[in-house]
């Protein structure tokens, strides 16, 4: 079987995505224990360059080895995964239950018809 080799650019992207996932999960978990827990992940972003340099032996040509450019080059990829995994882990840990505020809402209709397998707290207002 032929060995698959990743290009340096792809390794860099995967390292950024892994760091976004790790910091997102840490943020979501810490957010359940104290109010400013999501800031932990934002602070961990500042360690992203150390993580990437520890994982990769070399950087892509368009990313200088200084701290600032690595963080700027990796920001959007990191941010999207950090936000996704922060919200997902936080929601799972707090055992989120949706609230139906109207019997005309799509969520209420889906639950009432049996198409949704979750329970909804009914809180009709007005």
Protein model, in words:
By secondary structure, this protein is mostly helical. The protein is built from five helices and two strands. The radius of gyration is 20 Å and the shape is elongated. The mean pLDDT is 84.
Question: Which key terms come to mind for this protein?
Answer:
two-stranded parallel ribbon, 61% helix
Biggest beta sheet summary = 2 strands, parallel
Give the overall silhouette.
Answer: elongated
Number of helices: 5
Spans of at least 5 consecutive residues whose pLDDT stays below 50 are none
- Which structural class do you get from the secondary structure elements? mainly alpha
How confident overall, as mean pLDDT?
84
| Computed Rg | 20 Å
How would you sum up this structure in a few lines?
Helices cover 61% and strands 3% of the residues.
Topology:
Blueprint: H1 8-33, H2 38-45, H3 48-55, H4 67-93, E1 99-100, H5 106-113, E2 121-122
Parallel strand pairs: 1-2
Helix pairs in contact: 1-2, 1-3, 1-4
